[in-house]
Structures are given as structure tokens and as C-alpha cells.
Amino acid sequence: MNYDEVMKMDKVEFGDMPPQPFLLGLLSAFDNRYQAAADAYFKEITWKQFFAIICINLCREAPTINELSEVMGSSHQNVKQILLRLEKKGFIAAVADDKDKRKQRIIVTEAARAFLEENDNNGEQSRYIIGRIFDGVSEKDLKTTIQTIMKMERNLSKI
Q1: How far apart, in whole angstroms, are the C-alpha atoms of residue 55 and residue 15?
Q2: Which of 31, 33, 47, 148 could pair covalently with 38 via S-S, beta carbons 3.0-4.6 A apart?
Q3: How far is the C-alpha of 22 from the C-alpha of 37, rounded, in Å?
Q4: Considering the domain boundaries, does residue 136 fall inside one?
Q5: Is residue 83 classed exposed, middle or buried when 0-12, 13-18 and 19+ CB atoms within 10 A define those classes?
Q6: Would 143 be classed as within a structural domain?
Q7: Residue 88 is part of which domain span?
């Protein structure tokens, strides 16, 4: 595959790069570009802060920082910094665990719920942006991509 042609980049020479490192680089570059676009979209919080709120809501019970770090795929230290900023904005709160008072559980506040209602995937602008990102990507290709990344994720967890 001629990656230079696929990427239409005249400032980069991919040569005979195998597809595996190319894909990893492509995912990293996409992540950076997406984060910049999402940061510009959300005025009140960053993409990583928004992602933290989404991950908190995905948990069956209010997570601890360690549990949230695992869900987000990030270090305890990075998640703690994200949560401190969200707490200052009134979007999350730490509460004592009912069974073990030494544990702190993270909950989203009413302010976060209101923010999510305004900025969720059901909003017109969100649907437009997501639609543009996936324009021309078939459901079959999307499922294959999801399966591939999930296999890579499982393999990564074994390293």
C-alpha cells in the first residue's frame, strides 16, 4: 500500500512502513486532531473532561479514581487532575463509599447532567459532527474497525 498516496501528504515519506506501525501512528494522529476539534466544540470543558463524565456514567456504580482510571485507560495521576478541574467547575463530586468510608466515589452533579443534556450525541450539532467524521464509512467497515481495535486492546493488556 502506498501510504503517501492514501494520506495525500507530500511532507512525509512513509516508504515501506508495515501497516501495523502505520495504523498506530494514524490512530495517535487522529486522537490528537479529534481532541483539538472537540476542545474547540466544548466551551466549558475539554474533551478529556467530557470523556471522564461519559465514563463515570458508564459505570454501574459511582467509580473510585482507580476504577475510573481503568475505564478511561489513563493513569491515576492524569485522571485525578481531570477530576480536580471538573470538581472546580461543579461537574463532579467525591462522596464516601457506603461500605468503606476510606474509599471516595465519583459522582456527576446536576450541572454535569445539564451540560450533557445540551451536548449529548442526540443534539443536532453533535449528530452533524459525528456524521461528518463517519461520512463514507460503511457499517461493515465500522464493525471491522471496532473488532480490530478491540483485539489490539486485548493484546495490549497482555503486555
Answers
A1: 39
A2: 47
A3: 22
A4: no
A5: buried
A6: no
A7: 38-127
Residue 88's CATH number: 1.10.10.10
Which grid cell sits at 72? 478511561
Domain contains 97? yes
76 in any annotated domain: yes
pLDDT digits 0-9 by tens, 95-122: 999 999 899 999 999 999 998 888 765 5
Q: How does DSSP assign 101-120, residue by residue?
A: TT-EEEEE-HHHHHHHHHHS
The distance from CA 129 to its chain's CA centroid, rounded to whole angstroms, is: 15
- Alpha-carbon distances of 94 from 47, 101, 120, 137, rounded to whole Å: 21, 12, 23, 40
Cell numbers describing residue 149: 481495535
Task: Read off the pLDDT of residues 61-96 as tens digits, 9 standing for 90 and up.
Answer: 999 999 999 999 999 999 999 999 999 999 999 999
Residue with cell string 461500605: 99
Residue 140 CA, chain-centre distance (Å), reads 22
Question: Given phi > 0 = left and psi -120 to 50 = alpha, else beta, which region is 117?
Answer: alpha
Residue from 108, 68, 61 nearest 87 by CA = 108
The rounded distance, in Å, linking the Cα atoms of 60 and 64 is 12
